[in-house]
Design goal:
4 helices; seven-stranded antiparallel beta sheet; alpha+beta; about 30% helix
């Protein structure tokens, strides 16, 4: 198994706002500029599968495997002889909100999928978190 983690604390952002952006899968491309499209046709719950299409890449089926509302969720992409687990976590602190992302790859061909897909996904996590927070802050500003 291989894994990488990234986290950053953000000031002035609400847990519920980030959570709502996460569960609004069909709008992920509005803040994640690495995505061409996403398609979730069922409720955001354990066992639900959705389509994710990275820019320049093939469609990937993602399954939601764990949810702890307003705190964590995990989504899994399955490849031949490997799985990529993407764990998302929100941690409230006295100063702000820590947004954490952990990506791991398991399986006999995990090493290969790390080179082909997972490292690229991991490399853009810091930028994605910034884009997510900016997206949420703009949405909050419109509702004030």
């Amino acid at each position: 198994m291989w894994s990488a983690e990234y986290q950053k604390e953000f000031i002035g952002i609400e847990v519920k706002s980030i959570w709502n952006a996460w569960v609004d899968v069909n709008n992920w491309p509005k803040w994640d500029k690495e995505l061409e499209k996403t398609l979730l046709e069922s409720p955001f719950e354990i066992g639900t599968k959705f389509l994710l299409k990275p820019k320049g890449g093939p469609n990937v089926t993602i399954e939601i495997t764990e949810i702890n509302p307003l705190k964590t969720f995990t989504a899994v992409a399955r490849f031949p002889l490997a799985e990529m687990h993407n764990f998302h976590e929100l941690i409230e602190t006295e100063n702000g909100l820590i947004i954490k992302s952990k990506i791991s790859v398991t399986g006999a061909l995990g090493w290969l999928w790390r080179i082909i897909v997972v490292q690229g996904v991991t490399d853009v996590v810091p930028k994605q978190l910034e884009e997510l927070v900016n997206y949420v802050k703009k949405a909050e500003a419109k509702t004030r």
